[in-house]
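Issue 218. Parser rejects a valid record. Input:
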Amino acid sequence: MTDTLTDDPQTPTPPSGPRRPHWALRRLWWPVRNLWRSLTSMRTALMLLFLLALAAIPGALLPQRDLNEQKTAQYIDDHGAVGTLMDRLQMFDVFGSTWFTAIYVLLFVSLVGCLTPRMIEHFHSLRAKPVAAPRNLARLPRHVSETVEGSPDEVAERINGRLRGWRRQVVVHPASDKYPDGVVEVSAEKGYLREFGNLVFHFALLALLVAIAVGKLYGYEGTRTLVADGRQGLCNNSTAVYDSFRAGSLVDGTDLSPFCIRIDNFSATFLPSGQPDMYDATVRYVEGPRAGDPRDWKITSVKVNEPLRIAGDRVYVLGNGFAPTFTVTFPNGKTRTQTVPFIPEETATMLSSGAARFDTPAGLYPDEDVRRKNQIALQGLFAPDGRFHGSLLTSASATPDNPFVAIDIYRGDTGLDTGKPQNAYSLDRQLIEQNRLRQVARVNLTVGQTHDLGDGVTVRFDGYQRWVSVQVSHDPAQTWVLVSAITMLGGLLVSLLVRRRRIWARLVPVASSAAAGAAGTDADKRRTVVEVAGLARTDQAGWGEGFDEQVAALLAVDGSDDTGKRPRRGRL
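Output the parser choked on:
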């Protein structure tokens, strides 16, 4: 019987070509994998680090809204459409912008993804045995071949004992066609701390980024101008006590570090050129939610770069100036006295400008409209060392030898009860333009002088006080930032100073190195041909020109060379 083969339509035909991968692998997994590999490469991390430094430049050159909102608004107005476009691009809020945060997060992810495999690889390399000797040691850049006394085992023990501090391994190979009497090889490696220091540096950089981010999230800064008269103080219990307050994204202002401070005195010294030399503020402070009697508070001195550290916060003295004191006497004989900080317009001479607003005494004008028409406002200049060029007041120096004020006196509605925020250092121009606040006099006064407005109202310049601008800064991660920076420096030094080196020695009995068919003598068997080779990444990594001396130190018999003198030991 003969079998006949026929085409069976029910039998599946195997594919003729290789099977294509699933579409999910090609369109989803592979692009994600390639993107992850690119993101976690060291090249990408370096690019992101450079980009982060580049992105921080606008934050240093342009006014930032969280530092000075008024100056930022003025900058936008001065530059018109360009300023508006820059504002939309978040150029005035750089360090809180979306694009800066994106670079920051990408750098963090890149460092984590880049360092984790390197750490695992370094861990495995620490557990691995030293690399076996290459087949041809003569091809390495550092190579020495000598014949020494002793058997291969004795020489290997001698070399192994002098490689203290190295990871080393002695391997005895059996006899072979090339080496009839066998061969002994010594492998040693040193410098694993180099890679360890490199990893420490990068992980410390990662920790630094985390610490800075935590400080920004949980930190805050507040500034307040205080008159140094021993009466005005600051208690850190609310954001409302500050002139300006910047808080991290996770700070709501309800859990501030409790403490109180008061400026008792302030002194400033100047160079002959008028440049400030040193500031010194006498600060009285207490820590805790209860202030108690100010006379029981502790006293300390706060200077430039010497802040007061209290309750985990730092209190700095940022700026200073003069605060003239004015007294306004109203027709009923009652007085209002204010000490108002003036802002320096010239840092060399401390010529300052400012404004003061005085409401009328209670009950003097029962009608509200009449009361608003009789409020008093002052605006002008204060000169510590006054000099006049005609009627123009200037200051000769920052030393208060001849204090003068040049003020414009206004009567009318000062806007105190409108509920609208006003500039503390200048009057509302809109009130003046609307004639709701009218100028009634312009005078120059020295300390103690009075100007009479003619209707029972007088204005007196009583003198001045010093004011200081203090900044309260809270950064819970500042210690970790310091530790990370020091660790970065230590890791960098280790990676630069530690040298990664490898050394191999091949020990062959003289009898094995003789010509084929010749038998070695007993004396030959007590001698060994030693090939020593070293490998470093660069000549500066450790070998240099002293390799021959280092080999002599390894091979010397009983610590002496052929001349009977102790060999000069090279750095191994």
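Fixed in the parser; the record now loads. Residues 220-474 form one domain.
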